[in-house]
Amino acid sequence: xxxxxxxxxxxxxxxxxxxxxxxxxxxxxxxxxxxxxxxxxxxxxxxxxxxxxxxxxxxxxxxxxxxxxxxxxxxxxxxxxxxxxxxxxxxxxxxxxxxxxxxxxxxxxxxxxxxxxxxxxxxxxxxxxxxxxxxxxxxxxxxxxxxxxxxxxxxxxxxxxxxxxxxxxxxxxxxxxxxxxxxxxxxxxxxxxxxxxxxxxxxxxxxxxxxxxxxxxxxxxxxxxxxxxx
Length: 230
Prior knowledge:
The structure is a single chain. This protein is an alpha+beta fold. Helix 1 (34-45) crosses helix 3 (70-84). 15% of the residues lie in helices and 34% in strands. It has a 6-stranded antiparallel sheet, with no helix packed on it. A 5-stranded antiparallel sheet has the order 4-3-2-1-8, with helices on one face. It has a 5-stranded mixed sheet with strand order 12-11-13-14-17, with no helix packed on it. The longest helix is centred in the middle third of the chain and has 15 residues, at 70-84. It has helices at 34-45, 53-60, 70-84, and strands at residues 8-11, 14-17, 22-25, 28-29, 51-52, 92-95, 99-102, 107-109, 125-131, 134-138, 141-146, 153-154, 165-170, 173-178, 185-187, 190-191, 196-197, 203-206, 209-217.
């Protein structure tokens, strides 16, 4: 989802940052799966307006067939994530058989440091995956890898399980864990049984599919380290 401005969305105790794709409570990052962040951002952008189930599906799963229950499932998960973070999901209204509306107060605020070009702490490090000519950029939160169209990193290969593995990103650290896949998850040639830390250049195999994991300086640091490639 693209946004023309550089505003932050404040609601309740939370602050949503579209550019950095982060949900914050104070200075703490609230873990939120990428798809749930997309749902939240769409509701905040259109606060007070009805977002139909069809619009949600079209916006979040373009050109992909998904079960008709996907919007409701993601709204349930979003509400649960907000409540677990100590907030309230009361502002998300369900209009039965029609769609959803964000009814809570939403305030748009300017990003701190936007005029001075101050770097954002969240962008000083980034992680990337590449496989079969495709790429995915990973930010803070949990990223499910698999053949399920609703997976955060969709890998459409027959020997990949629907929910094959999960990468957890926390600041400058990333770990991967297998989710009970049929063909296993391998890091550096070893089948993993427990959450395993990832390092720059690690090869990950989901069954027979090879992925390359890269870690390094993010875009915010390139102003002062122009000799580094992204």
